[in-house]
Structures are given as structure tokens and as C-alpha cells.
């Protein structure tokens, strides 16, 4: 089978599509025939060597939507099931940017039925990051939240999930994104940190750090999306960062929210697996709204 990997670090041209042996599922694993696999900023980081691993072959891709093609023992899934899954890790030999991928059964969820596989492939990493970040904030109904990068993939899901929980959301994004961010449910919108009001918590999807921490009330909470990169606590503000974890049960809940119209899935464009270098170059240019999806 074909798979996108890096063997040397660098720009988009460092990504190679190679022939690899078809992976076989072990106990409590399934093999998925990939129908769509989103490209995320973390893939650019892996390609550039941000996470290390020099001298190794590293597979790219975390998100996958497709069809169960083979199963190991002790799994509830069957061949033919339409599923989504998160296969995390920055040092794996094979990722989801491939024709087939093996994932742990506990990372798998039934795919949303109201969208195609290309759209479903944009759900796992970004929605799980958003919901796990919100869990860390421990907000209750009626409290206020500032979401930075509110028009982005993680930020957009965070706005919708927080509003669904009864939280009042202010979205911070570029001026041209106001209509979209408000359509997600944000009651307030700002283009600058200085213009944002005081809130109970911040979900910092844009990684603004200490600057946005100033908007949190004394004793509030801050969560960042880069593990270990959150600012230190001030004024009693609890500061943490989310390290996303695969969670099939939680992913199933998120897929259900897609089918209920609570979550919006956005595809900015599709690329064949052989066009993966072009996809990396496009994402690196910036300004992408929605996710680029590889279609093997």
C-alpha cells in the first residue's frame, strides 16, 4: 500500500509517498480502508522536525474516516463498518495519510451519517482537542469564555461546544471572520485581545499566551492547545494545556453532535495522496478556513 512519510526533515518537499506492507490488526485493533484523512498543523511540525525523530521513518496523519477492512480479536467492530478514528503520535512508522491504517479499537467511533467521509475526516483531532480543553476549564452554564482563533478548526469546535453547554462565548479572530464566528454561536466578537472583556476562562486556540491571560478574571482558568506551553499562573488563574487523547466513546458523542447539527465540519479542499506535497505547501501558506483532506 502507499503511505505518506518523512525520512528527512524540511519543507513540503520532504514528504514522500512510499510503498509499505499492508498493516495487520492485532488484538483489540482494526484496520481501516482510508476514505479521507485530514492534514493538520501537527503534521507540518512533524515534517519540520519540531518533535524530533531524526533518522527514522515517520508516518504522517492523525485523523481518519473510512471503512473497517479487517479486525483483530476482542473488538466490537465488524468489517464494513463506517468509522472515524484518531491515531495520535509524532513518531509512528505509519499514520493515517495512507491507503490503510491500523488503530486501537478504543479509538474508533461510528462515523456521522449526515456527512460524507471527507467531511467526517475533519472531526477527530480538532473536535477531541476542543472538548478535552473545555473539560479542563470546568465551566458551568452561564459562565463566560474567550476563544482565541475562533474561526480555526479547534476554535470553531470550541465555540460550538461551549455554546451547547450554555456558556457565553466571545470569539477572537480576524475582522473578516466575524459573521462566521457569530454563526457558530458566539455572542461577542473581537479582533484584538485589548478589546475583549473580562471572562471566566480562555481557550487559547491561537496560542497567544500571556497576552490573553490578562483577560481572565482573578481565580479564573486558562487552557492552551500546545502541551506544556501554557503560561504560568497569575492572580490565582489556573493555567493548563491539553494533550489530546484518543477516545472512541467521546468521539462517538461528537459524531452524534454532527448529526444533530451542533457541530459544523469544514473542508477547505481535497488532494489525492500523490498530491500530499501540494497539500503541505497550501497549508503552510496560511489563510485556510477548514481542513485540507487527503483522499487516497
Give the topology.
Layout: E1 2-6, E2 15-19, E3 29-39, H1 41-48, E4 58-59, E5 63-71, E6 82-86, E7 100-104, E8 108-110, H2 117-120, H3 124-137, E9 144-148, H4 153-164, E10 168-172, H5 178-183, E11 188-190, E12 199-204, H6 210-213, E13 216-224, E14 238-241, H7 248-259, E15 267-272, H8 276-285, E16 291-295
Helix pairs in contact: 3-4
Shape-level CATH architecture of the largest domain = Alpha-Beta Complex
CA distance, first residue to last residue? 10 Å
Form type: globular
Structural domain count? 2
Strand content: 25-35%
Gyration radius over CA: 19 Å
| N-to-C order of helices and strands | EEEHEEEEEHHEHEHEEHEEHEHE
Number of helices: 8
CATH H-level homologous superfamily name of the largest domain: Medium-chain alcohol dehydrogenases, catalytic domain
Q: Would you count the extended β strands for me?
A: 16
Annotated CATH topology of the largest domain: Quinone Oxidoreductase, Chain A, domain 1
Largest sheet: 7 strands, mixed
Name the CATH class of the largest domain: Alpha Beta
Helix content: 10-25%
Mean pLDDT: 97
Secondary-structure-based class equals alpha/beta
Low-confidence stretches: none
Amino acid at each position: 500500500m502507499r503511505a505518506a512519510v518523512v525520512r528527512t526533515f524540511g519543507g513540503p518537499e520532504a514528504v514522500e509517498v512510499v510503498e509499505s506492507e499492508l498493516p495487520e490488526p492485532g488484538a483489540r485493533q482494526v484496520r481501516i480502508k482510508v476514505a479521507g484523512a485530514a492534514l493538520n498543523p501537527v503534521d507540518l511540525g512533524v515534517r519540520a522536525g519540531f518533535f524530533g525523530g531524526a533518522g527514522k521513518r515517520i508516518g504522517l496523519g492523525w485523523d481518519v474516516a473510512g471503512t473497517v477492512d479487517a479486525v483483530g480479536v476482542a473488538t466490537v467492530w465488524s468489517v464494513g463498518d463506517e468509522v472515524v478514528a484518531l491515531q495520535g503520535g509524532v513518531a509512528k512508522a505509519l499514520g493515517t495519510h495512507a491507503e490503510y491504517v491500523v488503530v486501537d479499537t478504543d479509538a474508533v467511533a461510528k462515523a456521522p451519517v449526515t456527512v460524507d467521509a471527507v467531511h467526517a475526516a475533519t472531526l477527530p483531532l480538532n473536535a477531541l482537542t476542543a472538548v478535552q480543553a473545555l473539560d479542563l476549564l470546568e465551566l458551568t452554564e452561564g459562565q463566560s469564555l474567550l476563544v482565541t482563533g475562533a474561526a480555526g478548526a479547534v476554535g470553531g469546535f470550541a465555540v460550538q461546544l461551549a455554546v451547547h453547554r450554555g456558556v457565553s462565548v466571545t470569539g477572537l479572530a480576524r475582522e473578516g471572520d466575524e459573521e462566521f464566528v457569530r454563526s457558530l454561536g458566539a455572542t461577542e466578537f473581537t479582533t484584538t485581545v485589548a478589546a475583549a472583556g473580562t471572562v471566566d476562562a480562555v481557550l487559547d486556540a491561537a496560542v497567544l499566551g500571556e497576552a490573553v491571560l490578562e483577560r481572565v478574571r482573578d481565580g479564573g482558568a486558562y487552557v492552551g492547545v500546545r502541551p506544556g506551553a501554557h503560561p504560568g499562573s497569575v492572580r490565582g488563574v489556573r493555567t493548563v494545556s491539553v494533550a489530546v487523547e484518543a477516545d472512541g466513546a467521546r468521539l462517538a458523542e461528537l459524531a452524534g453532535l454532527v448529526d444533530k447539527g451542533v457541530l459544523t465540519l469544514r473542508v477547505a479542499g481535497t488532494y489525492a495522496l500523490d498530491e500530499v506535497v501540494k497539500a503541505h505547501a497550501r497549508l503552510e501558506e496560511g489563510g485556510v478556513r477548514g481542513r485540507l483532506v487527503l483522499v487516497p
